[in-house]
Design brief:
The termini are far apart. The protein has 9 helices and 11 strands. It folds into 2 domains: 3-193, Lambda Exonuclease, Chain A (Alpha-Beta Complex), CATH 3.90.320.10; 199-271, no CATH class. It is elongated, with a radius of gyration of 21 Å. The protein is an alpha+beta fold and 273 residues long. The chain has helices spanning 8-11, 17-25, 28-35, 48-55, 57-68, 115-133, 157-176, 208-219, 224-236, and strands spanning 72-73, 78-79, 87-88, 92-96, 100-109, 137-144, 147-154, 200-203, 242-247, 250-254, 260-264. The protein has a 5-stranded mixed beta sheet, with helices on both faces. Strand 10 (250-254) and strand 11 form a beta hairpin.
């Protein structure tokens, strides 16, 4: 659910995800004017790119569920238990067997934006949300013009600590009704610190569960239902920090967009030496 749905009075009561991006960039004075009611918030109801993102949010969510084989649950507005001036209105929550729930955010950008730039741009917002919900990861589902990608972002403790400190500092100016100086910007972490490059290749040759499912995949390739069920189950064995898992002639690989692909008939060469 977009924070555009908030009334002006609600937005003045605290700091939301879109505010976090302004605080990280150091643009404090204009935000302070908005939070103290000294300046009207911009009217985005006739901004086409903004409204396009709002209207495509439901499609983006359904496409993510279909392609990633994950369910997104909806939630309402949440206020932080640790910092009551921080609130979040996320697009949804996803659940992982190993790590529990995480944030889901749907975005619509033009086709010329790179995935690295997009992730960097939204790091303040999703780290703000992760702090409010007290979770460790987020999924960004992004439509780039006519292409799509999904990116799992792990929490960066150092960046989150700096972000919360800056938000608390900014909010003190609002409470005191004291004009702030423009704050120092915060360097966002490299996307390589947060996505696929940190993941590992896992040898599954000793896993009995993997062996059974791999056998089904190899012998039942033409039995559609059993084959599809086995694919889903073997994907579910993948842990969040695995880039690839290999064993018994079957591998599961995670793409840069986070999509899992099952490959049959691959030898376990990486672990044979």
């Amino acid at each position: 659910m977009s924070e555009l749905a908030y009334t002006k009075e609600e937005r003045m009561k605290g700091i939301g995800g879109s505010d976090a991006r302004k605080i990280v960039s150091g643009d404090w004075y204009d935000l302070w004017l908005e939070k103290t009611g000294k300046k009207e918030s911009p009217d985005l109801s006739r901004e086409f790119p903004v409204q396009l993102g709002v209207w495509t949010e439901s499609f983006n969510l359904k496409w993510f569920e279909q392609e990633m084989e994950m369910e997104v649950t909806h939630t309402g507005i949440k206020t932080s238990n640790l910092k009551p001036f921080m609130y979040a209105n996320v697009d949804g929550l996803v659940h992982d067997k190993a790590q529990g729930f995480g944030i889901f955010e749907a975005k619509h950008l033009n086709g010329f934006v790179t995935q690295e730039k997009a992730i960097e741009n939204y790091l303040p917002q999703i780290h703000h949300y992760m702090y409010v919900f007290e979770c460790d990861y987020s999924w960004l589902s992004i439509i780039f013009g006519n292409r799509w990608g999904a990116y799992r972002i792990e929490k960066n403790e150092k960046f989150m600590k700096e972000l919360v400190e800056k938000e608390e500092q900014f909010w003190s100016f609002v409470v005191q009704d004291k004009p702030p100086y423009d704050g120092e910007s915060i360097d966002t972490p490299s996307t390589k610190e947060l996505v696929l490059d940190k993941m590992i290749v896992k040898d599954m040759a000793q896993s009995n569960g993997w062996a059974v499912l791999a056998g089904v995949l190899k012998t039942q390739q033409f039995s559609a239902k059993e084959f599809d069920d086995a694919k889903k189950e073997i994907k579910s064995l993948m842990q969040p920090d695995w880039r690839e898992a290999i064993g018994h002639g079957v591998s599961v690989k995670r793409s840069k967009t986070g999509r899992l692909t099952v490959n049959i008939g691959e030898e376990d060469e990486k672990f044979s030496k």
